[in-house]
Amino acid sequence: MSRQTKDLFEESTMSFGEHLEELRTRLIRALLWLAIGVSVCLFNGGIVVDFVRKPIDDALRRYSKANIQDDTAAIKSWSDKMYDEWGLDIILGERKKPASGEEEVVPEVESKLPAGTLKVNVPVDSLRRALHQVNPDAFGEPLPAAQVPEPAPTEQGDAPSPKAAPQTVPLIISSPELAEMQAVVEQSRRAVTLKVEEAFMTYLKVSTIAGFLLASPFIFRELWMFLAAGLYPHERRYVYVYGFISLILFFVGAVFCFYAVFPFVLKFLLGFNAFLKIQPQIRLSEWINFAVMLPVMFGISFQLPLVMLFLERMQILQVETYSQQRKMSILVISIISMFLTPADPMSMILMMVPLIGLYELGILMCKWSPPVSPFEGAAES
Q1: Distance between CA 57 and CA 61 in Å, rounded?
Q2: Burial of 249: CB neighbours in 10 Å, binned 0-12, 13-18, 19+
Q3: Is pLDDT of 31 > 50?
Q4: Which residues pair with 168 in a beta bridge?
């Protein structure tokens, strides 16, 4: 009894000229989708630029506030400096200050003050003296510091209780000069441009990249419709499964870099400006390049489980090899993380630790999905 066979390409058989025509049609459609995506992002490019700028703007704002606190506070210990420069305060929170005799008065934070206004805490004694100078009849003269009664001794001993912190009252002051000062300070916390056309070119670049990302599902669909005609059905299933996993891993790596790695990297790198007493001026175009390349590197590095699975399917490496060479693999991951990230230790650790976890995930994927013969898949089809 003869065995019936089926040509897997009988429904997609085309001549060479028909293949070229199909490729031309798919490329034109992909370019149309790209044009639509870029057009949408050009009309909303300000939102995209603000989104990409947010990490550096937040880092510059924190850097400015930290410098003001360092200028007004006492000299930090080496442990406090390492705690701040390594970005541990982002994970563990601010370090608690040691208890002192006087309780620190924390000023209230206004949700939103109008431009040109400033909230300050004024000691009550100073306010009384100022009011007395303005209107001596309505406001009496405050007691001198020598006539202020000392705190009464405690019951447990003769030592007097510690002096209470000076009382303060919040005042809101307003002035046109304050509005100008606030504008200058706020401008110093933003990225800068060094050429007349740089802002416009950056806008176009960001809009083009965002438009490609927006239209990428439709672009890849058009390319896939051309490539899928030359694949076996079981090969298409592999692309569907592993392509989806690859997309998820890339997305997780890029998001992890943008929201978890950037704060540490920027805090560490900007900390060298404070160490060298240099005012940073971040160029917008260079930041855009950095903000695009580093998430892409993280997304590519997160493909490690699929690379391991591919090597195992090609019989280049075995699952036992992955398990036995785990220590060597961790060393290689550490070296790769060192080259793919900036020089700060925190970003290297933040890439190395997930990659070690993904390495273990790759071993599990090789064990859970044993290799299947392609001839079996073709026969089932």
Answers
A1: 6
A2: buried
A3: yes
A4: 123
Decide: helix, strand or coil at residue 274.
helix
Task: State the Cα angle at 16 between 13 and 18, rounded to 5°.
Answer: 70
**119: closest CA among 168, 164, 189?**
168
CA distance 142 to 125: 7
Q: Which of 201, 246, 270, 215 lies closest to 56, judged by CA?
A: 270
Structure tokens belonging to residue 368? 């859970």
More confident residue, 372 or 351: 351
Q: Which DSSP helix (H) or strand (E) runs through 244?
A: helix 233-256
More confident residue, 47 or 127: 47
Angle between helices 78-85 and 262-275 (to 10 degrees): 140
What is the DSSP code string of 167-211? PEEEEEEE-HHHHHHHHHHHHHTS-B-SSTTHHHHHHHHHHHHHH
Is residue 306 exposed (0-12), middle (13-18) or buried (19+ Cβ within 10 Å)? middle
Least confident of 14-23, 53-62, 90-99, 329-338: 90-99
Q: Is the pLDDT of residue 5 over 70?
A: no
Inter-CA distances, 129 with 132, 136, 150, 191, 223, Å: 5, 9, 21, 44, 79
Look at strands 117-123 and 168-174 and give their pairing: antiparallel
Q: Which amino acid is at 147?
A: Q
The two three-digit tokens of residue 123, written as one number: 């000691």
pLDDT at 281 over 60: yes
pLDDT at 102: 42
> Identity (one letter) of the amino acid at 319?
V
Cα separation, 279 vs 340, in Å, equals 27
